Amino acid sequence: MKAITQDRYGPPEALRFEEIEKPLAADGDVLVRVRAAGVNPLDWHFMRGAPYVGRVGMGGLSGPKPRIRGVDVAGTVEAVGKGVKRWSPGDDVFGWCAGAFAEYASAPEDHFVAKPARMTYEEAAAVPVAAVTALQGLRNVGKLQSGQRVLINGAAGGVGTFAVQIAKTFGAEVTGVCSSRNVDLVKSLGADQVIDYAQQNFTKSGERYDLILDNAGSQSLSALRRVLTAGGTLVYNSGASMGRMAGAMLLSRTGRKVFTFLAKLNHDDLVVIRDLIESGKLRSVIDRTYPLSEAGAAIAYLEAGHVRGKVIVTV
Fold first, then answer.
1. Closest Cα partner for 153 from 102, 124, 191?
2. Pairing mode, strands 228-237 and 209-214
3. pTM of the complete model beyond 0.90
4. How would you class 20 by CB atoms within 10 Å of its CB: exposed for 0-12, middle for 13-18, buried for 19 or more?
5. pLDDT tens for residues 213-272?
């Protein structure tokens, strides 16, 4: 099969488009014929081996493991391993795996849910990491409640576009922060107010929010403190620097809660997301698609910033 492989950390040129052995469906696993794969910041961190201190968790100091990039996947079940009960060949699914940038990928059966018929493979591949991150950031970490005022900084990105929609399903009053070209997009996702950061600094508006989900990292902790209500919560989407962690602890002493988190993909949350999609309350936003052979360019485009929604690799 064709796949994007990597044996050393580096720029997109470190990735190779080559023929490798097709995987098998091990016991409890499902082999999926990949139709589309989502691109995430995780992919360029693994590609570059950055930050350096994270290389141990990436599989080694010299190169990442597994060799194939890509986590978000959508496709058709090709074969099932012994003991698999949820799926049969021909089922359309989406979920997560190790090695989605390939013609075939294998993962445990509970890594997948049924693809809604109304979604394309590309739309489904945009979902897993970004939507589950948005859900867990708002619900699990932020403890979002109906009627609260929530601000999504970076509302037009992969996590942000899902976060705006999910926050609305919780009954929140949602303010999105984005660039000028994305104002109409964020409004279309259901935001009650949209702030163009080129025209207005939301930390100087005088408004206060019960919860801030920060996907951009564009404001200092002291600035964000000004717009949190007493007892309000600030959630950094895993992009917070170590330097900010010290400030976060100090800010927490004022009664305001500050958290950083990494999403933990799981079947139950993916089912929640799928149900929201099927009810028409959640949709994917896709910026660009690239063929499998150009996966390196897709990662580079994401790494450059200012992506609207998600970048997708088609297979």
1. 191
2. parallel
3. yes
4. middle
5. 999 888 888 898 889 999 999 999 874 444 444 455 445 445 568 888 889 999 999 999
CB contact set of 281 (below 8 Å; sequence gap of 6+): 165, 168, 169
Whether the Cβ atoms of residue 194 and residue 175 lie closer than 8 Å to each other: yes
SS (H, E, C) the chain: CEEEEECCCCCHHHEEEEECCCCCCCCCEEEEEEEEEEECHHHHHHHHCCCHHHHHHHCCCCCCCCCECCCEEEEEEEEECCCCCCCCCCCEEEEECCCCCECEEEEEHHHEEECCCCCCHHHHHCCHHHHHHHHHHHHHHCCCCCCCEEEEECCCCHHHHHHHHHHHHCCCEEEEEECHHHHHHHHHCCCCEEEECCCCCHHHCCCCEEEEEECCCCCCHHHHHCCEEEEEEEEEECCCCHHHHHHHHHHHCCCCEEEEECCCCCHHHHHHHHHHHHCCCCCCCEEEEEEHHHHHHHHHHHHHCCCCCEEEEEC
Nearest Cα to Cα of residue 175 among 161, 199, 155: 155
Length of the chain: 315
CA distance 227 to 247: 16
Instruction: Spell 86-107 as b/e; 16+ CB within 10 A means b.
Output: ebeeebbbbbbbbbbbbbbbbb
For residues 106 and 187, what is the distance between their CA atoms, to the nearest angstrom?
Answer: 38
Amino acid occupying residue 123: E
pLDDT tens sequence across 295-315: 999 999 999 988 999 999 999
